[in-house]
């Protein structure tokens, strides 16, 4: 009799264990499903936040371009420097107005200081003998970004103190592509890819729409 009772108990225990295992399995599946949903929603949210941040950055860039454009057009009419070139150089030289020279000293173009001019000494890179080297440069400091843009236009228009015709090919250019090539040709920048970088910026941001039609 005792053996039969034990067998019955064993069968009951097995049934209980099976039921328990079943509910453990069901609970595990439910928990995993909830976790999977949570992780999925988190990833989607993070992606959305990344897109939003990217959109804001692009919006800020567009706003900055639109801020510079009217004055760039005025300077083109007065000094002959194509507006898209003026804007593209500001973008490239100042890294979208984030460089120390631009954000703190309003120098958008990396223009070096003349003797007696308000200035600041900062490290900069120059391309010399086929390689990039870091040097200390004395750069002009301006009271406003407008002063910087005007100084840039006047530099290209009047040339340097040692060569008034330094940038004659830039001024003679009929479009932004020719002007970009002329900037390297006339010695504005040492970077051998400078012209291509300018052209790429102008085309990516459609800056030529700001150019004043030449007569």
UniProtKB/TrEMBL annotation:
Keyword annotations: Hydrolase, Membrane, Transmembrane, Transmembrane helix
Molecular function terms in GO for this entry? amidase activity
Domain of life of the organism encoding this protein: Bacteria
Annotated transmembrane regions: 20-39
Q: InterPro entries annotated for this entry?
A: Glycosyl_Hydrolase_73, MGlyc_endo_b_GlcNAc-like_dom
Mannosyl-glycoprotein endo-beta-N-acetylglucosamidase-like domain location:
55-211
What the entry lists under Gene3D superfamilies is as follows: 1.10.530.10, DNA polymerase, domain 6 (4.10.80.30)
Q: Report whether Membrane shows up as a keyword of the record.
A: yes
PANTHER family per the UniProt record, alphabetical: EXO-GLUCOSAMINIDASE LYTG, PEPTIDOGLYCAN HYDROLASE FLGJ
Belongs to which family? Belongs to the glycosyl hydrolase 73 family.
Protein name according to UniProt: N-acetyl muramidase
Origin organism is Leuconostoc carnosum (strain JB16)
């Amino acid at each position: 009799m005792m053996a039969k009772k034990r067998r019955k108990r064993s069968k009951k225990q097995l049934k209980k264990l099976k039921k328990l295992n079943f509910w453990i399995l069901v609970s595990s599946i439910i928990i995993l499903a909830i976790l999977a949903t949570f992780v999925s929603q988190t990833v989607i949210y993070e992606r959305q936040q990344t897109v939003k941040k990217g959109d804001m950055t692009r919006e800020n860039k567009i706003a900055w371009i639109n801020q510079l454009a009217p004055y760039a057009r005025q300077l083109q009419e007065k000094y002959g420097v194509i507006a898209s070139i003026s804007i593209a150089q500001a973008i490239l030289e100042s890294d979208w107005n984030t460089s120390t020279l631009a954000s703190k000293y309003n120098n958008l173009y990396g223009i070096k200081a003349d003797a007696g001019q308000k200035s600041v000494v900062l490290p900069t890179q120059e391309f010399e003998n086929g390689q990039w080297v870091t040097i200390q440069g004395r750069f002009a400091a301006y009271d406003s970004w407008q002063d910087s843009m005007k100084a840039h236009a006047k530099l290209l228009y009047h040339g340097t103190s040692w060569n008034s015709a330094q940038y004659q090919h830039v001024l003679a250019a009929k479009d932004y592509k020719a002007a970009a090539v002329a900037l390297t040709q006339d010695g504005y920048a040492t970077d051998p890819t400078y012209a291509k970088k300018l052209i790429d910026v102008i085309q990516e941001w459609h800056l030529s729409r700001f150019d004043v039609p030449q007569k």
